[in-house]
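To whoever is on call:

I kicked off a structure prediction for a single chain this morning and the downstream step that reads the tokens threw a length-mismatch warning. I double-checked the sequence; it's 376 residues and nothing unusual in it as far as I can see. Pasting both halves so you can look.
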Amino acid sequence: MATTPGQGPLTGVRVVELAGIGPGPFAAMLLADLGADVVRVDRPGGPGLAIDPAFDVTNRNKRSVVVDLKAADGPARVLDLAARADVLIEGYRPGVAERLGVGPADCHARNPALVYGRMTGWGQDGPLAQRAGHDIAYIALTGTLGMIGEPDRPPAVPANLLGDYAGGSLYLVVGVLAALHHARATGAGQVVDAAIVDGTSHLSAMIHGMLAAGGWQDRRGANLLDGGCPYYGTYATSDGRYMAVGPLEPRFYDEFVTLLDLPEHADARKDWTRWGELREAVAARFASRTRDEWTAVFDGSDACVAPVLSLAEAPGHPHLAARGTFTDHGGITQPAPAPRFSATPTAVRTGPARPGADTAGVARDWDVPDLLKGLE
């Protein structure tokens, strides 16, 4: 049976993605980047927060069909796909998939080996399970948002990277791959309950250990890795840009103060009573030159200093350019698939899937001719 061209270690794995926003599409993109044949089931009219489909790179490497799950034959079309899939991903509120007729029990009745991945913020149970939310609320409750930012200012919002994508999408993908391994070994599928509150909390495991050991203060800007340490943070340059510094180890710190020409602070690394004066001296020094001038000073050193680049600047950095960390496809500069594989390399194979554009191909490749009903 024909499939999409294989590129990546998940070649041959079939994934059904029930369209949503945020972490679900990103998780499905990651599986698609790894070579899976991902079929996105779009709803008529599209999701509520969608960008122009032509620019939504989270739908790259996928194919799309449109199914109205509220139509009489809609659930049957999704169950036909689930019967032929290895993985299904949905991001509805708990109970919605069941009410639509495409919940785990419905799907497992057709395909007992299916891995059913559920992506939510609050999880499938608990007092808040039925409440609406977004990344910022989920990470607020886990304690991680409160860690980020300056001590005398409100917590800094890390876009939706920490909750939606790190605590959500990546944990869903880890769970799906682990359950897929189990299903292939035993023939038994299962449900993966990936909650952003769970994943984001899990990300802070080391910090909780440090907190228990007395090595972390439960407040912002007072610790080694949260900006409280003067040699782990960011500093403004004379042109209003920033440098990031992180020479935590003694030999890196020595190189740092040498290149900054601050020999009088060579012994201040572990003396926190001198951290205030060290911060002022470092800030004054960085403020005396431009970001690019300081970048040149630290070029080739082990002082662990880097310029803070914008999203538009990052693809042009010599290191990222040399590695091909970013790629251009269809006129859109975007991050290349990650991580990298020696035997099964990955690639951006196709641009963003347009809703419904691939119905005929999926109907043929997955042997689900009923997908074409209503299109003739």
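Update from on-call: the warning came from a stale cache, not from the record. Cleared it. Sanity check on the structure: The two ends are 23 Å apart (CA to CA).
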